[in-house]
User: What shape does this take?
Amino acid sequence: MEMFIGISISKLEAIVKLSNRNDNLLAFGELWFFEEGKEEPTFKVKGYTIREKEFGEKRVICVVPPAYRAGFKFQTSFIVENKALYKDITNLFLKGFQELTGDVFTQSEEINLNDIPDDLGEKKY
Assistant: This one.
């Protein structure tokens, strides 16, 4: 089933709200999509999180897209196939987090997502 619509997305906005939790969940996020010439978002994707994770001995701040529990794992529910756009969206959330916290951090650009175990951090979620 298809439906053709004439929507042109002109702006993305990342909304970041700090968490009050004491675990690795640092903030919550929403991604807003704006149509050209509109002041209110046309779409909102809720459920992003910003987390502190460990990869070996390295600790990094990660943006985790929305997901739902599927048995003992989490299944991503919002996927961006364009890798350059995905990186831009991730950086948008990280900049928003940095503005709220004043923290300066380094994001690793060389993390291969295929090398991250599927069950990473699930015990804390």
Q: What stands out?
A: The first strand starts at residue 9 and ends at 18. The chain has one helix and six strands.
